[in-house]
What does this fold into?
Amino acid sequence: MLRASKVVVLLFFLVSALPLASLAAAPQTVVLDVPGMTCQFCPITIRKALEKVDGVIEAKVVFETKTATVTFDPDKTNVEALIKATTDAGYPSTVKKP
Ligand SMILES: [Cu+2]
It folds into this structure.
């Protein structure tokens, strides 16, 4: 009886620890300045390039402000990789200064 309850407690700890472990990699968001956009179709090219990067959760590219707002998993990718992706697509970018 005592041993069985210990197993239950142990299982409870294991199960409750799992969501905490996945929370450790909280998504990050970065805003990139992409000054090379020249028309309404440039954002589509840039968005597709960013979404190809493993770890990118969401990319919003706005022509009017010439910015790309990217949400990504910091365990899988980083800002340097995002900048490389837009640059390789023909649109060099930099981290937007607040
Ligand atoms: Cu264009």
Q: What stands out?
A: The longest strand covers residues 56-62. DSSP finds three helices and four strands in the chain. The mean pLDDT is 87.
